[in-house]
Amino acid sequence: MKFSRPRTLLGLILLCLGLVTLPLLLAVAKAALELGELTQQSEAVVNESLTATLENQRIASLLTDMERNARQYLVLQDARLLDLYREGHSALLQSVNFLANLPQESDTAAALTTLESNATALQLALTSTARTIGVDEVVARFQSMASAARALGEGMRVVINNRLARLRETTRATQQALAWQAAALVPGAGALIVFFLLLVGRPMRQIDNAIRALGEGQFQNSIAVKGPRDIETLGRQLEWLRNRLQENTEEKNKFLRHMSHELKTPLANIREGTELLLDGAVGKLDQRQQEVTGILRDNGVRLQKLIENLLTFSAWQTNTAALEISEFDLKPLVFNVLGQHRLVISNKKIRLQIDVAPVSVRADEGKLRLVLENLVSNAIKFTPERGSIHVSAEATGGELVINVADNGLGIAEEDRERIFEAFYQGRRPQGGHVGGTGIGLSVVAECVQAHGGTVTLVTGQFAGAHFRVRLPMSDALQPAAKAASA
Question: What is the pLDDT of residue 311?
Answer without folding.
Answer: 65
